[in-house]
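Thanks for the sequence, V.! I ran Type I restriction enzyme endonuclease subunit right away. Repeating your input here for the record:
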Amino acid sequence: MSTFRGGEVHTSQLSALHLLQTMTPGWRLLTRAEVDRERRGRLGSVLLEDILAAQLAKLNQIEQDGRFHPFSEANIRTAIERLRTPEPLGLMTLNEKTTDLLQLGTALDQTIEGVTRGRSLRYIDWETPANNAFHAVAELEVEKSGSHETRRPDIVLFVNGIPFAVIECKAPHVDLGTAVAQIITYQRAGEIPHLFRSVQLVLAVKPSEAKYATVGSAAKFWAVWKEKEFDDAAVAPLVNAPLDAAQARRTFGDGFAEEQAPFEARREEGRTICEQDRVIHALCRPDRLLDLARRFTLFDLGIKKIARYQQFFAVRKILKRVTTERDANGVRRGGVVWHTQGSGKSLTMVMLAKALGLDDTITNRRVVLVTDRIDLDVQLRDTFDACGTDVIQAKTGTHLLELISRNKAAIVSTVINKFEAAVAKGDFKDESTEVFLLVDESHRGQYGAMHTRMKRVFPRACYIGFTGTPLTKAEKSTAARFGGIIDAYTIDQAVKDKAVLPLIYEGRQVAQEVNRDGIDTWFGRVTRDLSDQQRADLKRKLTRYSEIAQGEQTITAIAYDIAEHFTKFWKGTRWKAQFAVRSRDAAVKYYEIFKEMGTISAEVIISGPDDRSTGDDPAEEVTEPVVRFWKTMMAKYGGEEEYNRQITEGFKKREEPELLIVVSKLLTGFDVPVDTVLYIDKALTGHNLLQAIARVNRVEEDKEYGYIVDYAGVLGELDTAMRTYSALAEFDPDDLDVGHAIIDVHAQIARLPQAHANLINHFKGVGKRRDEEAYEVFLADEAVRKEFYALLAEFARLLATALATSDWVNDPKNETQAQLYKDDLRRFQKLRTAVRNRYREAIDFEQYEARIRKLLDTHISADAVEVVTEPVNIFDTAAFDRAVDEQTTPASKADLIASQTKRTITERMEEDPVFFKKISDLIAEAISEHRAKRLSDNEYLKKIREAAEQVRRPKHDDVPAEVRSDEHAVAVFNSLQNAMNGSAGLHGSSIRPVLAAAALELVSIVKALKVVNWTENVDVQNAMRNRMDDYFFDVVRDQHSVDLSPEQIDALVDGVLKIARARMA
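Predicted structure:
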């Protein structure tokens, strides 16, 4: 009978090690003995010193007078020390400094033939990857900072003896998120951040799934990789290639011997390629890894970023095109990159500029960044600046000509209309083919008259356009003359990759018939939750506005509807909203209404009355309210730049404003992850529509969707495919594949009945359906509770969406169902609170995003929204007894005592591992016996109380009398007795006095040598270790004839120091 073998080592770790060795060039796997020699036995060291020294000598030969000279051994040692010299800096700062060292090398004074001067030494040969040395290490044991405890990442990849990549492997059934969390944890202070000082790539892999990131990346920014240059046919021979004898010994010799036969049998059958194989082959081939590290990683305001796959392949396609394809006049072929908004288009431009500068076939390259609006020019320049790339902004057409003609800057940014001013200044031309114009949002200007003007200044430049929306049919035909599409990354692809979020769309109708009856009907709906006084006040305000024109009434109705919608579903959360309106006059009117209502904080960002350069309609009549508003803002902020800065910074970083009213500004290129809802009262078509709706699709923690609330009908009914809608008729249908990108709100609501049924069916195994105690007992198992929480969260999210949708709420046939849903949410939320208190879980609301908590506040009565009480300290007898008394049954009291005692044991386990494990086992046994019905509820409560009492007031009757008065010595005695059980020499009662004396002496050693913060002081801990070693050798082994090996003594000392760090810090 044939069987398959599971487990992390077999299915993931060994498969990865095998592929790393069979790829070309391959990684040489080092044995643990070899690694120990390289690190001189120091577990805190992460450099392979002999390999590094040999490679530095090999890669760095100094040529002088036709002869080659090596760097001195002293300089080689200095270069190594610069990679590990401790500095009082955080990991990210150290990683940035170390990355600079790896990419730029370091300068060292070297004397050759009597002449001393600074010489450049390089750590990596970036141009010729084969000149480097590539090694892999499995289960690298790394000592934690300030501790002798260790961590063991599954695989570490070294380039020239320097850690370059870390891979964490998981079994098929394990959530990949645990591997991501593990690598993130390793990087924290007190863990093994020193391993990551030089690391460029981190991977979390399991057979069916893989994600990658770089050092410092939060979990939400770990990405999938989709290879575009190789297919499975390139990988298949590698995953099934045999290892040679030496490779096999290295692979299976260090603890994996029992896996060799089944692993080889699986390979001989022909192993099926999996996603882990594809990603490791794509990212860990030495030449690819070096390319990613050199050209595709950058620091953005101290945050390290690595290219997503679409950025990587777009830049490589561009480089290949511009370096290999020219027309008959020698002009490099350009083209257009279409990457949907939110996919990192600006960073792609930064990476391209960097790659152009590193390409040695391009000499004296100059880059001109072109946008069509001042705010986009500022945003793009700021992105380059944040990534450490110097950009000079052309202030005028004359300044642009000066920068270009005198080669004053490698990178210049400008607004496109400055070319018109430059052309008007004269007939200056730059005929260089080494000029690259990167045109942002190129669909607007590049293919029109402005493109002609740019060509007059740069007739032989290479033009590369970037756009966040697809090209129209007309733009495609024109773009083809300039090279056509280089690379495309659609919004649907981005949603599938989780690079951006899907959007939920609701077409909302408010007071369509603006007459007295229509307004009254609407008024009754929006005021049904108000007091009489509030309703009268609103009626007075509404009446005043209703006396104006019909359009004014519509504005008033929409403003109140937005205020109601936002207040009910978003206010008090950290999520913000934008409101796109038809004109500056409308923006000011809306602002005044929101201001008078006072329910939500709103601000306006518009251009000045005389400004026609920022996208607001130049034909729009400027009204007196707009002029008055503008004067007020300028007086308040002191100028337009400060007005824009303070309001946008507040929207990004502070609680207010909650709503940002805009006309055209900030509907393009304004990327704020907390921007979650876009209200629309404006006719939007084509690029403007696609740009606007993408403002709210940025990824952020706990953000599941962006929301579009459409008062203008710009997308019509989504039961008709978006691609056929007239507002987007200018695009090719294939370019508007948005199946995953935009979701009709009614499609979401349609999932609500099934989500409700799933929640109810979760409890079908509960016999007593009216007994809440039966439900709580049913949820005793943690896995069952977690599934309940997930089902409840999904139901709550969908109900929140339904209750925020006006036509669903106002449809009479939904009234009964809505009440049922709200009642069930109330009772299941109360059940959730009860079991979290009963089983004393840590307070963690990750299952409930802020919007769901808002739903509970708004629609569910206050008694359902109970706060899970904080964990109670079992040593605070009065508080603990009160918490127990709140439970109503013996079983629930026992569950609470057990869960809280287990929490205390977990927190204090390292203080006395033997004692606390014994109590933990007693509690586990009692729980098991009760669930098996072998203990009654009262018996269960009695046993759990006894266990808790042992933790609160330990008696230690089982330890020698001479140590009972010293809790530290008791813990050490327990550890020694447990560890030495079965050791040759003294046994039983004869060894207890020896161990008691040893415990007291070892504690006295710690007390004598400890200083402030000694647990972070390696020298003090080494002194303690030496004194303890001497005691074990001289007294325990030699005087009392206890047969202990050096390895056993090391283990005993490690255990004692671990207890001392926990108890005596």
